[in-house]
Specification:
single chain, about 400 residues, alpha+beta, D-amino Acid Aminotransferase, Chain A, domain 1, Rossmann fold, six-stranded antiparallel sheet, five-stranded antiparallel sheet, 11 helices, globular, binds guanosine-5'-monophosphate
């Protein structure tokens, strides 16, 4: 890809301007692996390509779930170690989310047992400062130094936690435990949403600890390299194989499992009851089809339709327009059946999305985002109702 001026250079990547597009950067990953803030450094042929592939796929998953990231495109092809990203001003913090106690946490807090599950997840901030080994920093200190404001801190914590849960879900489905995760944020310098916070930098196999089958000794991430006493060519080959394996596994993360909601009306008037639900399901990216049957006039026809749909779609849910039809379908099919008259549309759509989220990480992420937005709407409403009156008005 044609590159403009170099904007920044780190230990494992370099950023260039994209000619003619001032708000877009090219991130090129090197074949380097480093540890101890650069004290240890090795080359692994192909590592840049593998890292770009991993990061691009993680970003694509997060974007599909609805999280804000700087990622635009690229990095996913076999011969491509370059990603296009939106230009940001980086916030000089490493935001770490922990779901299992390991690493610097158990060194700093020996009372916490290594391997202990951490709920609620812990979010820690480290200030980026290689010379001082990226020290831990308090939220109050971050605000006092003007690095981020309290709203940004709250948003970073929330987005970091949701990112962790989405990636933990994806890894869990591959029998692997996500232990902890590091991410970084930036503020968009231009274009739509200028100034807003997005997940930036990269999330790749250097950014997390992952333990297959929950067993630390099977780790596939960079910790294996950090732990080496001496680095031999055989060790580096093992590290390369692990990184390649992780990129392949992460390649399967951003795929949504096709699912269908069959909206089954008990007579033509039932269709109207179901229509609003189809719209809300669409917001979760879930497709729906419509059928009209009659539970009391033609029960066999209703059962026949259900059998056809069961045979056609691997992942299916039924929504009936009323209790009589719901009972008939529930008895006739092994597929989940919901009754649209039992729950409000938004609530029912959420229940259906959760049912499908069990084995679909994109649906799981969208559920988390909808829940987070609902919480934030409540907090905003509360802040508004308690806001001080504008200057000059008398309460
Ligand atoms: P810890 O604080 O336990 O050493 O690290 C917590 C998590 O953040 C781990 O998943 C680790 O891989 C990640 N992490 C910590 N420091 C860095 C860093 O400088 N670069 C990267 N890529 N990840 C880091």
């Amino acid at each position: 890809m044609q590159k403009g001026l170099e904007v920044a250079r780190g230990k494992t990547k370099v950023l260039y301007e994209k000619p003619g597009q001032p708000d877009v950067l090219i991130v090129q990953a090197f074949d380097n692996i480093t540890a101890g803030d650069g004290a240890r450094r090795n080359e692994i042929a192909g590592k840049g390509r593998i890292a770009a592939k991993t990061a691009a796929r993680v970003f694509r998953l997060l974007k599909l779930c609805g999280l804000p990231t700087h990622y635009i495109s690229g990095g996913e092809d076999d011969d491509d170690n370059e990603m296009l990203v939106r230009r940001c001003t980086m916030i000089p913090l490493e935001v770490v989310v922990r779901g299992v106690a390991a690493g610097s946490l158990v060194r700093r807090r020996p009372s916490i047992a290594r391997g202990a599950i951490i709920v609620p997840r812990m979010v820690e901030f480290f200030i980026k400062d290689d010379a001082n080994h990226d020290p831990l920093i308090d939220p109050e200190e971050i605000v006092a130094r003007g690095i981020a404001n309290p709203n940004e801190l709250a948003l970073m914590s929330e987005v970091a936690r949701i990112t962790f849960e989405i990636l933990a879900h994806a890894w869990r489905r591959r029998e692997t435990l996500l232990v902890d995760l590091k991410l970084e944020f930036g503020r968009l310098v231009g274009g739509e949403g200028r100034g807003s916070l997005v997940i930036a930098d990269v999330i790749d196999n250097d950014s997390w600890r992952i333990w297959p089958q929950g067993r630390e000794e099977l780790m596939l991430d960079k910790q294996l390299y950090r732990n080496l006493q001496e680095v031999t060519p055989a060790d580096l080959e093992q590290v390369r194989e692990n990184y390649e394996k992780v990129a392949e596994l992460v390649g399967t993360f951003p795929t949504q499992r096709p699912a269908m909601a069959a909206l089954v009306a008990d007579g033509p008037p039932g269709l109207e009851l179901l229509e609003p639900l189809a719209r809300v399901l669409g917001q979760f990216g879930l497709q729906s089809l419509r059928r009209v049957v009659s539970a009391h006039l033609m029960p066999n026809f209703a059962i026949q339709i259900a059998q056809q749909l069961d045979a056609t779609f691997a992942r299916l849910v039924y929504v009936a327009s009323g209790p009589q039809l719901a009972a008939l379908l529930a008895a006739a099919t092994p597929t989940p059946v919901f009754d649209v008259t039992e729950q409000e549309g938004d609530e029912l759509a959420m229940t259906i999305a959760k049912t499908l989220a069990v084995d679909d990480t994109i649906m799981f992420g969208r559920v988390m985002l909808v829940q987070a937005n609902a919480r934030s709407a409540i907090l905003q409403a509360d802040a508004q109702v308690n806001a001080p009156p504008p200057n000059g008005t008398v309460a």
